[in-house]
């Protein structure tokens, strides 16, 4: 689900880049075919004897939840996809995969949902048949639906104990007024409570979004390509639904600074978040690539602010950015976990000064280049298994909608120039685009 933890992890991944004139950022051969029904099938032969990763990306997330009272359904439906079919009733799929030793799970973001399996090539034929069956023929009765709705409510209550969920809810609800990004992937609490009564809607959600032309497969590892594609065509070929075309409400421009505070009822560390509205991610414009570099430049471990607040004065426990690319205009955020409430003014001042200096034209080209070099090699070091490869490809395809999104995004990052950071900060990191969130624990206390 979408949480600040997910933002932190994928925000770091989003920074990965290749330097100009360096070897290609994505080092493995890629084969891509599109079936007549619109399903995109991407294969990456990878030296991993006997192992294969299988990722299914459905481009539906909380951004698509436009009907009043129906938030949280993209995440909820991730749960329902494990409920079985007439051919393979609930539990049978899991039993079959367990006999082979597959690791199997799923996650939902603002913009897409991913289902992933990793295990032995010996089970690949069975996996293709099982996956195609549930994406074509998912079947569940209303009692099963109601039971899972209560489980999702329980998941919300579990996450509610973490300050980040409350912070995310308040930040998004303040920064957004119309776009579905105004709620978390879990959804509004009252909508989650009402989910058990939405069985009919859930069936339409499946028909609307779980379609071949809205789905990409990524398969990486040890496999026979011709045999794999024969299986894919056989089992996925009859899938014939078409994705719905439903407009997403546009967010009206923000015109003045907004603030929101969270009072946490128990002891924890104070927190501070600064979030600015920024453009939608695109492979034909540099905005997403600029923000990927900007995040490390402003608050990464080589930044003056990090050295001052975390290492030097030790006012801040952690400092980072919540940025990762989004399909629609979203937020570029900086966040700090403070060691004490008394550290807040100095932290705010240091972050404001860093942004003001950048917007005024003070930029270090050598550090920009070093960041790009470091994050390129960080990416390469994290492509060690078929699961790593398929996962990275799937993530960027979910956002940008094309199989080569990772490579193209990294090429864009490699082209970022220092002066682009300056112009971006000057245009977007301004008070009229800013929402500030503060979290204060009970009595300003520490954990």
Short summary:
Residues 57-186 form the Peptidase M16 N-terminal domain. The chain is an alpha+beta fold.
Describe what this molecule looks like in 3D.
It is a single chain. The protein is of the alpha+beta class and 447 residues long. It has 2 domains: 4-236, Metalloenzyme, LuxS/M16 peptidase-like (Cytochrome Bc1 Complex, Chain A, domain 1), CATH 3.30.830.10; 258-444, Cytochrome Bc1 Complex, Chain A, domain 1 (2-Layer Sandwich). Helices cover 43% and strands 17% of the residues. The chain is built from 16 helices and 11 strands. A 6-stranded mixed sheet has the order 1-2-6-3-5-4, sandwiched between helices. It has a 5-stranded mixed sheet with strand order 7-11-8-10-9, with helices on both faces. α4 (124-137) runs parallel beside α9 and α11 (304-312) runs antiparallel to α12. It is globular. Residues 1-23 have low confidence and may be disordered.
Please describe the topology of this protein:
Blueprint: H1 4-14, E1 31-34, E2 40-45, E3 51-58, H2 73-80, H3 92-100, E4 103-108, E5 113-120, H4 124-137, H5 142-159, H6 163-175, H7 189-194, H8 199-209, E6 215-221, H9 225-236, E7 258-264, E8 271-278, H10 287-299, H11 304-312, E9 316-321, E10 330-338, H12 344-359, H13 365-381, H14 386-400, H15 405-415, H16 418-428, E11 434-441
Parallel strand pairs: 2-6, 7-11
Antiparallel strand pairs: 1-2, 3-5, 3-6, 4-5, 8-10, 8-11, 9-10
InterPro entries: Metalloenz_LuxS/M16, MPP/UQCRC_Complex, Pept_M16_N, Peptidase_M16_C
Protein name: Zinc protease
Organism: Stigmatella aurantiaca
């Amino acid at each position: 689900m979408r949480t600040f933890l997910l933002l932190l992890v994928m925000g770091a991944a989003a920074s990965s880049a290749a330097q100009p004139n360096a070897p290609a950022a994505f080092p493995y051969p890629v084969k891509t075919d599109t079936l007549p029904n619109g399903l995109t099938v991407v294969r990456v032969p990878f030296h991993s004897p006997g192992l294969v990763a299988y990722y299914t990306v459905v481009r539906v997330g909380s951004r698509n939840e436009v009907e009043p009272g129906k938030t949280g359904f993209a995440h909820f439906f991730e749960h329902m996809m494990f409920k079985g079919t007439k051919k393979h009733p609930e539990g049978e799929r899991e039993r079959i995969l367990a006999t082979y030793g597959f690791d199997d799970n799923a996650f939902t973001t603002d913009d897409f949902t991913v289902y992933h399996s990793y295990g032995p090539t010996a089970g690949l034929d069975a996996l293709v048949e099982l996956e195609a069956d549930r994406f074509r023929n998912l079947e569940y009765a209303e009692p099963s639906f109601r039971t899972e709705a209560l489980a999702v409510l329980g998941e919300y209550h579990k996450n509610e104990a973490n300050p980040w969920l409350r912070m995310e809810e308040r930040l998004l609800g303040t920064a957004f007024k119309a776009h579905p990004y105004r709620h978390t992937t879990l959804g509004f609490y009252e909508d989650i409570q009402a989910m058990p009564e939405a069985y009919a809607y859930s069936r339409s959600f499946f028909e609307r979004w779980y379609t071949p032309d809205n789905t990409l497969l990524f398969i990486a590892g040890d496999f026979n390509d011709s045999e794999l594609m024969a299986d894919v065509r056989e089992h996925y070929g009859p899938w014939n639904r078409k994705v719905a075309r439903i407009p997403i409400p546009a967010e009206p421009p923000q015109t003045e600074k907004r603030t929101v505070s969270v009072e946490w009822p128990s002891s924890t560390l104070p927190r501070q978040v600064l979030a600015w509205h920024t453009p939608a991610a695109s492979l034909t414009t540099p905005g997403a690539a600029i923000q990927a570099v900007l995040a490390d430049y402003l608050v990464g471990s080589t930044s003056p602010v990090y050295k001052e607040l975390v290492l030097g004065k030790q006012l801040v426990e952690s400092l980072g950015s919540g940025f990762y690319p989004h399909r629609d205009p979203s937020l570029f955020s900086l966040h700090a976990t403070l060691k004490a409430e008394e550290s807040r003014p100095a932290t705010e001042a240091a972050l404001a000064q860093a942004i003001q200096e950048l917007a005024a034209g003070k930029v270090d080209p050598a550090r920009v280049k070093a960041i790009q070099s470091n994050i390129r090699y960080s990416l390469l070091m994290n492509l060690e298994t078929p699961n790593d490869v398929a996962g990275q490809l799937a993530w960027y395809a979910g956002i940008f909608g094309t199989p080569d999104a990772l490579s193209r995004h990294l090429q864009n990052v490699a082209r970022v120039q220092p002066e682009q950071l300056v112009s971006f900060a000057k245009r977007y990191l301004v008070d009229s685009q800013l929402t500030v969130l503060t979290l204060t624990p009970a009595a300003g206390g520490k954990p």
